[in-house]
Amino acid sequence: xxxxxxxxxxxxxxxxxxxxxxxxxxxxxxxxxxxxxxxxxxxxxxxxxxxxxxxxxxxxxxxxxxxxxxxxxxxxxxxxxxxxxxxxxxxxxxxxxxxxxx
Length: 102
Fold this sequence. Notes:
Elements: H1 2-33, E1 35-42, H2 47-58, H3 62-70, E2 74-80, H4 82-95, E3 97-101
Antiparallel strand pairs: 1-2, 1-3
């Protein structure tokens, strides 16, 4: 019986190895589906427009949105789908911001 007990244990080890690599692949897949919109810089003349877009996108108050914009480079919104990230990027760039999607 000790031999039979050893055989399933040996069979379980290779099964655990692919299971161990699956969680490592899962975060990589999640990183590809969720994106962060980062304000890298903004045109000083367009600062108010950028603050308004940040407020609209995040729901922050005026003071918080202003501080976030002035802290550039800063992540404006995270964990967005590709289409939503691209839409927010376009709005911020139209307002005068320099934006990247990560």
